[in-house]
Write a structure and sequence with these properties.
By secondary structure, the protein is mostly beta strands. It contains one helix and 28 strands. It has one helix at residues 33-37; strands at residues 2-5, 12-15, 43-47, 58-60, 66-70, 81-85, 91-96, 108-113, 119-123, 137-144, 150-160, 163-169, 172-177, 191-198, 204-205, 215-220, 230-235, 241-245, 250-256, 262-270, 281-283, 289-293, 298-302, 308-313, 327-333, 336-341, 345-346, 360-365.
Length: 367
């Protein structure tokens, strides 16, 4: 059995099957029995092939295919890769993500397509906790030829501590770093932040400090029991940016001025009885946010007024029947909510008790 501890030293990741599953063992508050009876049952969308033991970020390709990033932390003998899923449900490997020579691996998490069809990738090298990967995270720009073959890999930014989620808007790339440990808050609590790069940037060297000109705003995670920062990022139709503060179970709304400077960064939605932690976030055509509650094996919906309601929740499971096996990223695709099941992290505040096969994507109905 191999055991990896992420760079924050908080999340134990166990690379072995755990046999039969137990009931919900979450250490946090959960929805009441009455509200539980109103929850939607998630369904199995897809069993993933052997090369995808750890599914994570997703994005919709220009041709409508769903692209899935697989950092494969559960089995690092499997090359980190990108998979393509067609509208008729066929899945195939697209490419292996180019590795960082210094570590010998890649760790693709959040992904986003630019306006020209290039794919931007958060290569979160430090997630493994390996010392040689510390502060070696990258933002990659992958360029393809007309047949979808990788023709060029550009390093937009290097030296990042914990790049996790990414969005593209108006020629800019917005990236969340879930940990900025070099920035010391007087409270001693964890600082994380949002970076912005131009789509044509190359070789930007990040220091993970307040000296970084690309760092546009920061947050502090106030929950001392879960010191993990920004996780989940999405824009609304008006250009406001929403980011999740994992440990606080809070959604921050970031507002920009006329020159795209940050003029507001406040908690916009928070109700830990309905949403305890935040991972990936997506938005539907009506402006509702859909948030993966990583610790509680749940999905929550946040309406345009900031009201949070848990939509679905699963006990500890292997996902084979469509259960939410540690949901990491949701995405709206072809009228459905597709959810990747990360199924890796354990701990006293997690429903998940260990990694096991099969690896899955779940689906939910959009209300």
């Amino acid at each position: 059995m191999k055991k990896y501890i992420c760079l924050l030293g908080l999340l134990a990741v166990v690379g072995s099957g755990c046999g039969s599953k137990k009931e919900n063992v979450s250490g946090g508050e959960t929805a009441t029995a009455d509200s539980q009876s109103e929850l939607q049952n998630s369904e199995l969308f897809m069993l993933l092939p052997d090369g995808c033991p750890t599914p994570d970020g997703m994005a919709i390709a220009p041709n409508g295919d769903l692209v899935l990033a697989c950092p494969n932390f559960a089995d690092i003998s499997k090359p980190a890769c990108l998979m393509r899923i067609t509208a008729d449900g066929k899945i195939s490997k697209w490419i292996d993500v180019p590795v960082l020579q210094a570590t010998g691996w890649a760790s693709p998490m959040g992904i986003a397509f630019g306006s020209d069809g290039d794919l931007f990738v958060c290569d979160n090298q430090g997630w493994s906790g390996d010392e040689k990967a510390k502060n070696r995270g990258r933002i990659l720009r992958l360029r393809f030829d007309g047949d979808g073959n990788l023709k060029e890999t550009i390093e937009v930014a290097t030296g990042m501590e914990h790049p996790n989620g990414i969005r593209f808007r108006d020629g800019k790339i917005y990236v969340i770093q879930s940990s900025l440990s070099a920035i010391k808050d007087p409270s001693g609590l964890l600082v994380s932040g949002v970076y912005r790069f131009d789509e044509n940037d190359r070789d930007v060297r990040v220091t993970n400090t307040l000296a970084d000109k690309n760092l546009i705003t920061t947050v502090t995670t106030k929950n001392p029991e879960v010191q993990y920062g920004l996780d989940g990022i999405v824009f609304d139709s008006e250009g406001n940016l929403y980011v999740g503060n994992f440990g606080d179970g809070a959604i921050h709304k970031i507002i920009f001025g006329k020159d795209r400077e940050v003029i507001g960064n406040d908690v916009w939605a928070q109700d830990t009885t309905q949403l305890r932690t935040t991972d990936g976030i997506c938005i539907d055509d009506a402006g509702n946010l859909w948030v993966a509650d990583f610790s509680d094996n749940a999905i929550a919906k946040v309406d345009k007024d900031g009201n949070i309601r848990r939509i679905a929740q699963s006990p500890d499971c292997d996902g084979s029947d469509g259960g939410l096996d540690q949901p990491g990223e949701p995405i709206v695709w072809n009228g459905m909510l597709i959810v990747s099941c990360f199924d890796m992290v354990t701990g006293p505040d997690k429903v998940n008790t260990g990694h096991d096969l099969p690896s899955t994507l779940a689906k939910l109905k959009l209300e």
